[in-house]
């Protein structure tokens, strides 16, 4: 059925006098048919919906955080309503349906609480009996279940639906003590495991952050086993990341295979997201910390070599064996935890984070992610004597208290410290600075954390992401993981996310012979001479980008004509102008396409100057 026909039917139902409907607390036509966005969906969003439909209304949309996955899900549900045999078309006789037939159909509808006639759990039966109370009866024939990983995301999703025209009484939350049976229900994965009939009664199930329900948890397999019972049921997965080579994602890939991808790189290029400028901050362990780290590492290696087991999974199997082997496995895990803890609150790492906050951006809202509660508590205590207040949000902070903290962020305090709690679903489009205190190489976590600060906001086209890592430790590979999270595999840039080791490799490709005519700068384009001091110029380029956040006119893009005549037919070129930090009246012009600059470093030394590097950092 086309969307126009559905709208026509809805219009007829709305035109029926109230007295014509059954005298129940609420009578529902498909709620999702009332969905109205106050904007037009982007081409890539429409393409994702079409790809999901073409895959028989099943699959995962792999879209970067901040690119409208939720809106894609809502549109998929509305489009499925128009195509599904169990939708309005099963009850109406197209546009020729008379009012009396509509009323007759509504009288015959089965209440929402009449779950599928299958074996139920005791909790399911109890919930069903509770819902038979007259005040809880809701008539419907197109039910949608939206699953989220955390309770804090339930009301956020509900509010989004309400903002798009769905009536409040048609949307319910299902978790804990709050069990509202509605046509569109928002629940958590843990809650639905305890009442699988919520899945059975639904025409469509949406899995938000689907990458979290991996094969590692047997309870999650119940969700997939239930959702595939009905081959006509529409199912949609939403996530920003999904490792298709990880065997733990086998079930997800089988039930919800990726149907459309949209990476951070693509979204930045399309100007859908702010450009992430990743600034690596390399620190070292103190002498005392280095000795402790070596001791932990030596113990880990010795146990691994003895049992020929080198990863968490194989050590977990050893743990189950009992006896001496189990004791050694426990020792292995203990030393891994101690080493991770040491890296998380390394003295120089905390000092570097505090320095970014206090010296560079004392008045900016900043989000800080770390791996341990000990590390963020220590950072909070370091900032306090400097007159900088910081608040901590972790899993122990209840939803209501968390919201109070977030409401005061930017007024009572500027630094928000978090473990994993704010990695998923929390939107902070106005925040431009994030600090990641490494010790994780989990690309899923990295992508989620980066995504927190990439949402576009008025006047925001760049987001700074500081990655503080300890060199010559397990932290070293985090820079490469961040690079993979941001850039597509087929188009890796050389302009960011590089530690000094990577920068030396990058510098090599810019070497070339000096042009014979040194005065002719037109011959110097993408080739540069000796790269002596390249790393220093990169650091200065970062300083330029940092200054741009506080003074936008330090670095800005303009359009200039390609020739001096300024003819209307002459081609426009994208030019960046950079003002000197010492003399604001002095400016440099950078042609980003041809990699040229008007500064002395480029003209006379033929090097890739800090101005060119800075524009590469911020250009989409």
What does this structure look like?
By secondary structure, this protein is of the alpha/beta class. The protein has 4 domains: 3-262, Rossmann fold; 275-281 and 346-493, P-loop containing nucleotide triphosphate hydrolases (Rossmann fold, 3-Layer(aba) Sandwich); 287-343, no CATH class; 508-618, no CATH class. Helices cover 40% and strands 15% of the residues. It contains 23 helices and 18 strands. The strands form 3 sheets. Strands 4-3-5-2-6-7-1-8 form an 8-stranded mixed β-sheet. A 6-stranded parallel β-sheet has the order 9-14-13-10-12-11, sandwiched between helices.
Short description:
By secondary structure, the chain is of the alpha/beta class. The chain contains 23 helices and 18 strands.
Spatial gap, N to C terminus: 41 Å
Q: In the CATH hierarchy, what is the architecture of the largest domain at level 2?
A: 3-Layer(aba) Sandwich
Beta-strand content: 15-25%
Strand order of the largest sheet: 4-3-5-2-6-7-1-8
E-strand count = 18
Evaluate the radius of gyration: 29 Å
On the 0 to 100 scale, the average pLDDT is 78
Describe the SSE topology:
Blueprint: H1 3-15, H2 43-54, E1 58-63, H3 69-83, H4 99-108, H5 122-131, E2 144-148, H6 152-163, E3 171-175, E4 178-179, E5 184-188, H7 189-193, H8 197-200, E6 204-208, H9 218-227, E7 234-239, H10 250-255, E8 258-262, H11 264-269, E9 275-283, H12 287-307, H13 312-319, H14 323-344, H15 347-360, E10 366-369, H16 373-383, E11 390-393, H17 399-408, E12 415-418, E13 433-437, H18 443-451, E14 462-470, H19 478-486, H20 500-508, H21 534-550, E15 555-561, E16 572-579, E17 587-591, E18 596-597, H22 600-605, H23 610-618
Helix pairs in contact: 2-3, 12-14, 13-14, 15-16, 18-19, 21-23
């Amino acid at each position: 059925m086309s969307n126009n026909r559905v709208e026509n039917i809805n219009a007829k139902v709305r035109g029926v006098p109230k007295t014509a409907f059954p005298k129940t607390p609420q009578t529902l036509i498909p709620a999702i048919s009332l969905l109205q966005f106050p904007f037009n969906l982007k081409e890539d969003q429409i393409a994702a919906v079409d790809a999901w439909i073409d895959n028989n209304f099943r699959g995962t949309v792999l879209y970067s955080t901040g690119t409208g996955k939720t809106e894609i899900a809502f549109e998929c549900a509305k489009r499925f309503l128009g195509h599904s045999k169990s939708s309005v078309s099963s009850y109406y006789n197209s546009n020729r349906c008379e009012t009396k037939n509509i009323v007759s159909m509504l009288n015959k509808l089965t209440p929402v609480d009449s779950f599928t006639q299958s074996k139920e759990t005791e909790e399911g039966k109890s919930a069903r009996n509770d819902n038979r109370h007259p005040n809880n009866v809701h008539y419907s024939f197109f039910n949608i279940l939206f699953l989220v990983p955390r309770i804090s995301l339930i009301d956020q999703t509900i509010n989004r639906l309400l903002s798009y025209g769905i009536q409040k009484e048609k949307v319910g939350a299902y978790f804990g003590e709050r069990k509202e049976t509605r046509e569109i229900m928002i629940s958590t994965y843990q809650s639905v495991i305890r009442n699988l009939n919520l899945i059975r009664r639904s025409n469509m199930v949406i899995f938000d952050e689907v990458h979290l329900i991996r094969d590692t948890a047997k309870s999650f397999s119940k969700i997939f086993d239930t959702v595939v019972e009905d081959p006509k049921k529409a199912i949609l997965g939403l996530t920003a990341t999904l490792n298709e080579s990880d065997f733990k994602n086998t079930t997800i890939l089988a039930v919800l295979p990726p149907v459309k991808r949209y990476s951070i790189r693509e979204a930045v290029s399309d100007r859908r997201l702010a450009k992430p400028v990743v600034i690596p901050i390399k620190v070292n362990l103190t002498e005392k910390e280095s000795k402790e780290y070596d001791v932990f590492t030596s113990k880990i290696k010795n146990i691994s070599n003895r049992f020929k087991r080198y990863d968490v999974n194989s050590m977990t199997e050893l743990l189950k064996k009992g006896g001496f082997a189990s004791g050694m496995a426990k020792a292995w895990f203990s030393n891994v935890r101690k080493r991770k803890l040491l890296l998380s609150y390394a003295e120089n790492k905390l000092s570097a984070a505090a320095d970014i906050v206090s010296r560079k951006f004392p008045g900016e809202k900043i989000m800080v992610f770390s791996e341990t509660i000990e590390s963020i508590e220590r950072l909070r205590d370091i900032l306090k004597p400097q007159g900088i207040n910081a608040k901590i949000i972790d899993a122990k902070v209840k939803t209501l208290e968390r919201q109070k903290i977030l409401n005061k962020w930017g007024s009572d305090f500027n630094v928000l410290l978090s473990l994993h709690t704010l990695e998923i679903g929390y939107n902070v489009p106005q925040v431009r600075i994030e600090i990641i205190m490494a010790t994780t190489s989990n690309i899923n976590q990295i992508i989620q954390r980066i995504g927190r600060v990439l949402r576009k906001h008025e006047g925001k086209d760049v987001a700074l992401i500081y990655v503080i890592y300890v060199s010559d430790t397990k932290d070293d590979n985090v820079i490469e993981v961040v690079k993979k999270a941001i850039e597509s595999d087929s188009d890796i840039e050389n302009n960011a996310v590089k530690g000094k080791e990577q920068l030396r490799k990058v510098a090599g490709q810019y070497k070339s012979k000096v042009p014979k005519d040194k005065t002719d700068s037109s011959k110097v384009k993408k080739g540069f001479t000796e790269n002596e001091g390249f790393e220093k110029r990169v650091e200065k380029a970062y300083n330029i980008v940092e200054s741009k956040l506080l003074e936008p006119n330090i670095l800005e893009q303009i359009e200039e004509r390609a020739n001096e005549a300024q003819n209307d037919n002459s081609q426009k070129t994208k030019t960046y102008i950079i003002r000197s930090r010492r003399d604001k009246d002095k400016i440099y012009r950078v042609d980003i396409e041809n990699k040229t600059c008007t500064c002395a470093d480029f003209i006379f030394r033929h090097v890739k100057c800090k101005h060119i590097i800075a524009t590469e950092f911020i250009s989409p």
